[in-house]
Amino acid sequence: MQQEADDDGDILFSAISNNVRALWQLLRCINFTKKARVYISNDGISFSVEETSVMDASVLLTKELFSTYRFNPPPQEEPEGGHDEANGSRSMTDTLPFEISLPALLETLQLFGITELSSTRSGRDFGSAPPAGPSAFDPRAIGMPCICRLSYTHVGAPLQIILTEGSVTTTCELTTYEPTSESSIPFDSADVALKVLVRSSVLYDAVNELAGTSSEKLLITASPRAPRLSLTAPGALGSALVEFTGEGESAENLLETFNLPYGVRITNEYKFDLIRKALRAMAMANKVSVRFDGQGVLSLQFLVEVDNAAGGKVTFVQFRFVPYLRENDSEEERPDYGED
């Protein structure tokens, strides 16, 4: 990745990618709302969405995913009393926020006929690693490489997207909107009640198996003794259960790390329809970090390896879910911390 000056001296942001499929695949993971909040910074471009204040998701397109990346934040007016860097007043100058139509962006990126490859998760044993070969992000899967240039000239300007394939060039401009107030779901990283690192294919297979039950809820239980981790989909005619014992060589391959700081069983309930919306991220990620905080908020952070001409790069897709409030719980009570 290289950073170089553009001829447009006053341009706020520009980036070039030779792997349009990677951008398209990653953004599709969070394509369940009409608008996405965009944050451009020196580290990359972040897209975030939320649904009814009970789920949010974000994708970070790190600058390493682009062959050229240039960011020039606009000067900000100093607050009254002068600039106070100690209180973090300068942080706003390091990020350029706006909102954009996510479906329109995805449709633009696939103008040259990008299609989704058939899933590599099918036709193999539960939780096993996908077969070797070109990934869904590999430009070789498309055929002729497509080059994408993103640019944002000034605050309030459209996001310009220029796609070039061979001798054909298409220019699109997408309307940007003033960002609404940020309302991301808080996760207390200082009060983590569960942390599990697992191959994403394992979680994908488990959730996919339970999705056929048409259950409205998904219960996630962690225990200091076997089974260490279990997923339950209750229904009117019975319940379906997937368990990970955490014991033995094969289980250690499934649960790479397991940390239960409180040392007692924990059970949280989530809306299954929301969990299903993370299936695309589960299908393409390599690993996933599953965490509860003390209030039961579920964090799924997916590590995705992206292949491009510059070699393998890593980026992240993150989901957060608010748990169901149990009928006998008050607002100050923790989720179900049972004795084991």
Total domains, how many? Answer: 2
What is the count of DSSP helices, taking H or I runs of 4+ residues?
A: 6
SSE order: EHEEEEEHEEEEEHEEEHEEHHEEEE
Distance between the termini: 51 Å
| Assembly type | single chain
Please give the number of β-strands: 20
Remind me, CATH topology of the largest domain? Proliferating Cell Nuclear Antigen
Overall geometric form: elongated
User: Which runs of at least 5 residues are low in confidence (pLDDT < 50)?
Assistant: 1-6, 84-92, 139-143, 330-334
- Can you list the strand order of the major beta sheet? 10-6-2-3-4-19-18-17-11-15
Taking all Cα atoms into account, the compactness measure Rg is 22 Å
Strand content: 35-45%
Q: If classified by CATH, what would the architecture of the largest domain be?
A: Box
- Helix/strand-derived class? mainly beta
Overall mean pLDDT stands at 82
Main location: nucleus
Keywords: DNA damage, DNA repair, Nucleus
Protein name: Rad1-domain-containing protein
InterPro entries: DNA_clamp_sf, Rad1_Rec1_Rad17
Topology:
Layout: E1 13-17, H1 20-28, E2 35-41, E3 44-51, E4 55-62, E5 68-71, E6 95-101, H2 102-109, E7 147-152, E8 159-165, E9 168-174, E10 176-177, E11 192-199, H3 200-211, E12 217-222, E13 229-235, E14 238-244, H4 249-254, E15 255-259, E16 265-271, H5 272-276, H6 279-284, E17 287-293, E18 298-306, E19 313-321, E20 336-338
Antiparallel strand pairs: 1-5, 1-7, 2-3, 2-6, 3-4, 4-19, 6-10, 7-8, 8-9, 11-15, 11-17, 12-13, 12-16, 13-14, 16-20, 17-18, 18-19
Organism: Eremomyces bilateralis CBS 781.70
Protein name: Rad1-domain-containing protein
Keywords: DNA damage, DNA repair, Nucleus
